[in-house]
Amino acid sequence: MSNAAKNITKYFTEIVLTDVDKLMPIELACHSHPWSEKTFLSCIGGRYFGEFVQVTEQDLSADHAIGFYIGEYVIGEATLMDICVVPTEQGKGYGKVLLNQFLAQAKKLGTTKVFLEVRAKNIAAQMLYMNAGFIEIDRRTGYYPSSSGFGYEDAIVMSLKC
Ligand SMILES: CC(C)(COP(=O)(O)OP(=O)(O)OC[C@H]1O[C@@H](n2cnc3c(N)ncnc32)[C@H](O)[C@@H]1OP(=O)(O)O)[C@@H](O)C(=O)NCCC(=O)NCCS
């Protein structure tokens, strides 16, 4: 983790419907094909669980959200639906912090197996997951519209036993 990330206080807050306004800009900045606001709203509450991470910088009075995760829990299995760190804060360790928080919350709910899907070209995310112990279990050919705007991209399905 960088010194910049160490010098700030960070804390997690459960995502509720009214948080979508502040989290949509992060979603839009992070994905070539982001969730719509309607999809985001549909992934809050019920079988879904999520938190955003806020930072308080020493020289700033206001807290600001820099990333979030959304998970889904169904009968002992959890799926990582989304995880995002605002581009200006990427590479400072927050993705790892968010993934660990997702895994901790999933375990608290009773999860024994975690699943996720990731774009084949999203190496940063794959490295994050592999370093946490996820392994590739399947590949879905042409699952995503390509981030370049032409054609399609495979999805890699990964899983982790808790
Ligand atoms: C994926 C994402 C959440 C990672 O967040 P981050 O804060 O940048 O990640 P971290 O700084 O915590 O890095 C954690 C690990 O991820 C991997 N990683 C991060 N950025 C990387 C890069 N550019 N290249 C290769 N590996 C990278 C490394 O394994 C790193 O561990 P290390 O520093 O010990 O080597 C972030 O890049 C993001 O929001 N991307 C856009 C949204 C997205 O793709 N979400 C995943 C959808 S499946």
User: Which small compounds were modeled alongside the protein?
Assistant: coenzyme A
Q: Main sheet, how many strands, which sense, barrel?
A: 7 strands, mixed
CATH architecture annotation: 3-Layer(aba) Sandwich
Morphology: globular
Global mean pLDDT: 93
Task: Write the element-wise H/E pattern from the N-terminal end onward.
Answer: HEHHEEEHEHEE
Rg over alpha carbons: 16 Å
Beta content: 35-45%
CATH topology: Aminopeptidase
Total number of beta strands? 7
| CATH top level class name | Alpha Beta
Strand line-up in the sheet with most strands: 1-2-3-4-5-7-6
User: What would you call the quaternary organization?
Assistant: single chain
Low-confidence stretches: none
The total of helices stands at: 5
End-to-end separation in angstroms reads 25 Å
From the helix content, strand content and strand pairing, which structural class follows? Answer: alpha+beta
